[in-house]
Design brief:
56 residues; 2 helices; 0% strand
Amino acid sequence: MPVFTFVLEQAVQLKFGVVGAGAFLMLTVGIRVRNSTCAGIGAVVLALLFMQPGMG
């Protein structure tokens, strides 16, 4: 499972840069430590990055 997480994080960083990697890190850390605030912030930032126009 850690290998899959690492590959997914690298793909997010490749597409969305440092902000995307930070958001993905917040999401994964929030899920692992069961902190809904941290996971929610990471999820919202990733959702906003996915919805940006002209990123394709």
